[in-house]
Amino acid sequence: MKSYADLIEQTFEFPQEEFKVENKELLFNEVPLMEVIKEYGTPMKISYLPRISHNIKKAKRLFNKAIRKFHYEGEYIYSYCTKSSHFSFVIEEALKNDIHLETSSAYDLQIVRKLYEKKKIDKNIYIFCNGFKRPLYRQYICELINDGFKNLIPILDNLNELNDYEAGLQGPVDIGIRVAADEEPNFEFYTSRLGIRYNDIVPFYKEKFKDNPKFRLKMLHYFINTGIKDSAYYWSELSRFVYKYCELRKICPELDTIDIGGGFPIKTSLQFDFDYQYIIEQIIENIKWICNKSNVPTPNIVTEFGSYTVGESGAILYSILDQKLQNDKELWYMIDGSFITHLPDSYGINQKYIMLAVNKWDDMFHKVNLGGLTCDSLDYYNSEAHSSEVFLPMINNGDQLYIGFFHTGAYQESIGGFGGIQHCLIPAPKHVIINRKDDGSLETSLFSEEQHHEKMLGLLGY
Q1: Apex 382 CA angle, 376 and 385, nearest 5
Q2: Contact at 8 Å (CB) between 306 and 80?
Q3: Domains present along the chain, CATH in parentheses
Q4: ω before 299 within 30° of 0 (cis)?
């Protein structure tokens, strides 16, 4: 029987940019994971911050390269969707790369205040305020604009939202409009619940903006829930959106920016193959072609990248506590954590991640199921994105196996309720931040300890 290393190397192109093996142990972005485990233990979430800057620089480089290639007359603006991960170390790392922010709720704007107080941003930063807005969100928008955040742009989600800005803001103020895109054909609903209908946008502009010196319609925004991908649906929706921009631009000279919301995919399998350069060139070329055909200036392009920004920086490491043969063929490896609570997307939307053994790469392997600690029968992980089976090294003579799930950095803490109450009172794992010093050496720090029972009991009123 072959080793686990043979299995991986014969199944995939391996090693890869983020993954390689030395001395029978896995390295993640050149980080020796066994050393981190020996220092901090498991279960443990890690955030490798240099990957955030790496992905931002890559996207900016490719967009600007495509702009030069097609002589596109407009700027590219990279914004980070804070909802993907609100942690200070994530946003502050992203901001090192001259980016801008997209927000979703009132409390996002309190984060903006904190970032300004810490001198991580200035008042020139673009802040794109999305979402269906409760009164407090609208109030904070008005307060920040009135305080001098001149590039904070509220993106209107409904026809009535502008009334609060009419009352609370001094003009002139830049405003955006979100277009209600059609959902993917297999979705349960035909049109997105968010945004303003295509047919309402031009009449709404004529009524509320055209002769109103207080507001300038600066941006048209849309969002594709499935993200940017090479599909007939994506190109159809993008073209429809750009044609609407062109129609509106002919009567609205202040309109000079579009936001093509919906992010890039990230690697969730070792077989991942997405041609970022090709897709970006197609986006630039298509927008320019439609604008030239319509005889209107090409707009500045904003992207909102959340998972793409932070997802590939994250991982979670587990120990295998025990193995259980439950019948003739179903062998379970029990982890020291829970998929439902630690990786809620694996439970809620059947999201698959890159899963690899951390050690024992020279050992023989077999098929297993992975079980979590909660009493819920759905707390398991038994298939990979590339296959319907999970294979891991054998455990013999009481030796210890460690495994990792990779590219888990987006959404999992917020969906799982970081610092709150988890199913079966499974504690949140410790969280370790990994960075690199100027000389390239690793720097690790403990952001949060494993959740303690006293905090849980306090939340429950004991």
Answers
A1: 125
A2: yes
A3: 4-49+314-459 (2.40.37.10), 72-305 (3.20.20.10)
A4: no
Strand partners, 22: 25
Please state the pTM of the whole predicted model.
Answer: 0.91
Report the amino acid identity of residue 292: N
**Rounded Cα distance, 244 and 259, in Å:** 13
410: three-class secondary structure by DSSP = coil
Q: Which residue has the tokens 């009481």?
A: 398
455 burial (CB, 10 Å; 0-12 / 13-18 / 19+) is middle
Local structure of residue 449 (DSSP, 8 states): P
Name residue 366's amino acid. Answer: H
How many Å apart are CA 434 and CA 50, to the nearest integer? Answer: 8
- Chain centre distance of CA 99: 15
d(CA 367, CA 393): 9
pLDDT in tens, 162-208: 888 988 888 789 999 999 876 556 655 556 667 788 888 899 889 88
226/238 Cα distance (integer angstroms):
13
Secondary structure (DSSP) of 64-105:
HHHHHHTT--S-EEEEEEGGG---HHHHHHHHTTS-EEEE-S
Question: Which tokens is 197 given?
Answer: 């209908």
Among 219, 225, 201, 224, CA closest to 283: 224
Question: For residues 79 and 95, what is the distance between their CA atoms, to the nearest angstrom?
Answer: 10
Q: What are phi and psi of 59, to 5 degrees?
A: -65, -45
